[in-house]
Amino acid sequence: MPVRKFDLNELFSDLLPGKRQNQPAAATDAGATAVAPAPAASTTNADASPSHSGTGTPPSGDSADELGALLLARQVVNEEQLASAQRVIKQTPGKALHESLIESGIDEIAVMQGLADVNGLPFERVDHIKTQAHDQKSLHKLGIEFCRQNTVLPIRREGARLVVGSANPEDVFLLDDIKRRLNVQSIKHVIIAAYDVRGVLEMLTASESDQQANVEDILTDVGDDDVELMKEEKLQDADLEDAESSPVVRFVNLIIQTAVKEGASDIHIEPDEKTLKVRFRIDGVLFEMMNPPRKMHAALTSRVKIMSNLDIAERRLPQDGRIRATVHGRKLDLRVSTVPTPKGEKTVMRILDNRSISVTLDELGFTEESLTVWKDQIAQPHGILLVTGPTGSGKTTTLYASIQQMDLRKLNISTVEDPVEYNLTNITQIQTHDKIGMTFAAALRSLMRQDPDVIMVGEIRDLDTATIAIQAALTGHLVLSTLHTNDAPASVTRLINIGIEPFLVGASLNAVLAQRLVRRICKHCKEERPVNEELAELFKTHKIQAQTMRYGKGCDRCRKTGYAGRSGLYELLVLDDFLRDQIARSPNVTEFRRLCHSRGMVNLREDGFKKVVAGITTLEEVLSVTEAVA
Q1: Roughly how many angstroms between the first and final C-alpha of the chain, as a whole number?
Q2: CA 556 from centre of chain
Q3: What are residue 497's phi and psi, to 5 degrees?
Q4: Are 245 and 15 contacting, i.e. CB atoms less than 8 angstroms apart?
Q5: pLDDT at 350
Q6: Per-residue pLDDT at 571
Q7: CA-CA distance, 376 to 347, in Å (whole number)?
Q8: Which tens digit of pLDDT belongs to each residue from 581-594?
Q9: DSSP letters along 222-291, please?
Q10: Rounded CA separation 316/310 (Å)
């Protein structure tokens, strides 16, 4: 669905102190812009303009004397105005002549036209009233705030090249950063006026008539009890009128309902100096969804605190809580975290939906070979199985799916977690509590007296936890746990570095699974493109044959991103007798990684390339989450 932003000032005007100011009407096609033809003076330069690939030498620079002479010749400035601007830049280190002239009131367009001609770059106008004046997909990836801070705007694509406009002819390092962020092959640099950049960005963030919806009509369908708390709280503070008011209750309900409908994993309520943003994390990427009035921040935060049984009077310290609610008949848990910032409290809600962990191993993205081997490993009677990767890489989902694969009726399965995010049936789950001494190690010691068959440890963080886990594995228990390492071979050296004897690691460890998450190509706008020579050479190095690659063109169902849903990349290391002997010699991670690869281990990037060829994800996604292995 396309992102919709709402003007909530009128809806909440009865809750805001003071008289609401009249807001200017939004343009009919706000945020939709077009590139106007460049004036004739710069047309000749456009063909000769350099095309920057993010590297190489900067343009010729802002020659103040040459620019001043050109503007005098074109009668853009007179002698007095030029002399005044030159005095200013001499007294202000770092200020350029064109900046000083514009600040003194000289026509910005004419000055920027001259600046472009002096530096041999094309100049373009961006009409922010008309449509398609910028590359929406690239702007969405860069973010409005990034473009505003750097006075830059992605304008259009010309084949594999992206045309980027900025107000500074020497923005080579910025172009390099943009090339890296967008994964484009080359960039053509054009000069545009800072006025045009601000106009486009302001129209995008303003209320737009073609996207604006009457929030009262929207909230008519959202009732006070649409998000029903599992346990009603009793309020005693008389100062909670705003937080308990019907519009605030309904709006918080709308936020949660929309997040669930969009499949979001997190909700961010972020205050700024003059604005308030509500963003959803969908498929690992944050999308700005709503802009409530800034003055409603305190009421919205208080409402969330009330729902999660937090202290609404405490605004100086971070707080953590939990909301148990029913949305559209689905029981959900929301883990709430608030932190104080100079601009106000920021609130993040993690949506914990049991549906997200009810997937089977077959649905996670394993190749057929890896899936067969992993299922064989979780059927072993004893040993340690580790799942590694950074935070948010899907380790918990993989562990839960592995446990669900087991026969829960015949096995005694226990978990030690921090925190217990999902409640599972037929499984004993233990929550750690460091303040009272209920650590991972302490919980594991207790579990060893509970006749367990399978033990899942949320994370091996220290020597005590690692020691008990290895003892459990060596005494006939199957132990599943996680580590934060970049790849599977590094987990072995991590355990040795923690303090475990190498021979114990080799004797107890059965397998290590490293994983990452990549976004899937949207099936509704998937299209094929031919593989260029550079990619063909890359595929040839990895012994992959492909003539075409699939991409998502971008549609309303995927929010114009070209991606919908996520899949896993996996690197599965199964220890054999040869590798166990090598571990006993305490190898370094580089040496051990080469040994594992020589024994047939498929690394994360190789697994990603296979998914690119299969049309599951894109090369850009794989390269963004994996590292090249020597």
Answers
A1: 42
A2: 19
A3: -70, -30
A4: yes
A5: 93
A6: 96
A7: 43
A8: 999 999 899 999 99
A9: --TTSEEESSPPPP--GGGHHHHSHHHHHHHHHHHHHHHHHT-SEEEEEE-SS-EEEEEEETTEEEEEEB
A10: 13
What SS3 string covers 66-88? HHHHHHHHCCCCCHHHHHHHHHH
For residues 593-625, one letter each, b for 16 or more C-beta atoms within 10 angstroms of the residue's C-beta and e for the rest, the string is: bebbbeeebbbbbbbbbbbbbebbbbbebbbeb
Question: Which token pair is 357?
Answer: 């962990």
Buried b (16+ CB within 10 A) or exposed e, 304-331: bbbbbebebeeeeeebebbbebebeeee
With contact defined as beta carbons under 8 Å apart, do 174 and 201 qualify? Answer: no
Q: Are 168 and 83 spatial neighbours (Cβ–Cβ below 8 Å)? A: no
Q: What is the pLDDT of residues 7-35, one digit of tens each?
A: 444 444 444 434 333 333 333 333 333 33
Residue 4's pLDDT band, with cuts at 50, 70 and 90, is: very low
For residue 501, pLDDT beyond 90: yes
Q: What is the pLDDT of residues 307-339, one digit of tens each?
A: 999 998 888 999 999 998 888 777 888 999 999
| Confidence band for 57, pLDDT divided at 50, 70 and 90 | very low
Question: pTM score > 0.70 for this model?
Answer: no
Long-range CB pairs of 352-361, under 8 A, 24+ apart, other chains included: 352/421, 352/422, 353/260, 354/422, 354/423, 355/330, 356/265, 356/397, 357/396, 357/397, 357/400, 357/401, 357/422, 358/404, 359/397, 359/401, 360/401, 360/404, 360/405, 361/398, 361/401, 361/402, 361/405
Residues 490, 496, 497, CA angle at the centre, nearest 5°?
85
Average of per-residue pLDDT values in the chain? 81
Sign of CA dihedral 201, 207, 210, 212: positive
Q: For residues 494 and 110, what is the distance between their CA atoms, to the nearest angstrom?
A: 61
Q: Which of 322, 320, 318 is nearest to 331 (CA)?
A: 322
Written as six digits, the tokens of 422 are 């999902």
Contact 227, 258 (CB under 8 A): no
- Average pLDDT rounded to a whole number, residues 466-483: 93
Q: 26-42 burial, b for 16+ CB within 10 Å, e for fewer?
A: bbebbbbbbbeebeeeb
List the 285-290 sheet strands across, edge first. Answer: 227-229, 319-327, 330-341, 344-352, 266-271, 276-282, 285-290
DSSP-derived letter for residue 27 is P
Omega before 419 cis (within 30°)? Answer: yes
**Is residue 616 scored above 90 in pLDDT?**
yes
> Residue 23 in contact with residue 9, Cβ under 8 Å?
yes
Q: Which two tokens stand for residue 114?
A: 């001259």
The SS3 assignment for 622 reads: helix
Residue showing tokens 């051990």: 592
Q: Rounded CA gap, 568 and 5, in Å?
A: 32
Q: Which pLDDT tens digit goes with each residue over 543-578?
A: 777 788 888 988 888 888 899 999 999 999 999 999
Cα separation, 349 vs 352, in Å, equals: 9
